[in-house]
User: What shape does this take?
Amino acid sequence: MKIIIAKDYEQVSERAWEVMREVVYGKKDAVLGLATGSTPIGLYDKMAEDHRRNGTSYRLMRTVNLDEYAGLSPENDQSYRYFMNEHLFNRIDVQKQNTFIENGLAEDEAAECARYNAILAQLPRDIQVLGIGANGHIAFNEPGTPFDWETHTVALTQNTIQMNARFFKSESEVPRRAFTMGPKNIMDAKRILIIAVGANKAEAVRGMVEGAVTPDLPASILQRHPDCTLVADEAAASLLKK
Ligand code: F6R
Assistant: This one.
């Protein structure tokens, strides 16, 4: 795993953009795997700014997102679809019909997972952006998720519900289930960019980089990826061996 340590969030976002830029400048019809959460917002700001200033076009690109809450409509301002529209899609020239996220309102969960796996198979990702949970989760793959799982639905852990409660009026409003790509789908991307910010991620980052490769720490699977870059701020990297 290639490790880039940056001073603060602005620098982290800049370094993450440098990795993403190689992909979006290098391939007009790239497929971008994207993540939500607070971590990649700075990267999306850089992409939007570059589009505005330099006219970098996303018209031929496709995007696929990691995950979506079950039960939230795209119009719900806490859905991940809404988040992506706000933070990125509405700010660049990607065509909305080329942006894929699981359908949170799907009634047949198994059919929705199969539909999403088929999309992922048709659209090999040139890069997959990831954040990391304080417990080492990637997407909504919580500790214990088998590495060979593809898209599936999960009951969120109490830890993740608490972490995500900051985005809702109260913890009771956080959805209890979600659709998520599985570890296997994530590993299928040609390149992975994982971003980690803040001291509360330090333990998970250490486990991911230096610990055993185990489903108990889902991000540790990334040690097996041939082209994975971690961009971390000093706080998140603080427990790594110097
Ligand atoms: C988001 C996702 C999650 C987040 C992780 C970190 O699509 O799948 O795994 O990447 O929970 O979240 P933040 O960035 O809010 O700390």
Observations:
- DSSP finds seven helices and ten strands in the chain.
- The CA atoms of residues 199 and 235 lie 5 Å apart.
- Strands lie at 2-6, 31-34, 62-65, 67-69, 99-100, 127-130, 152-155, 177-180, 192-196, 228-233.
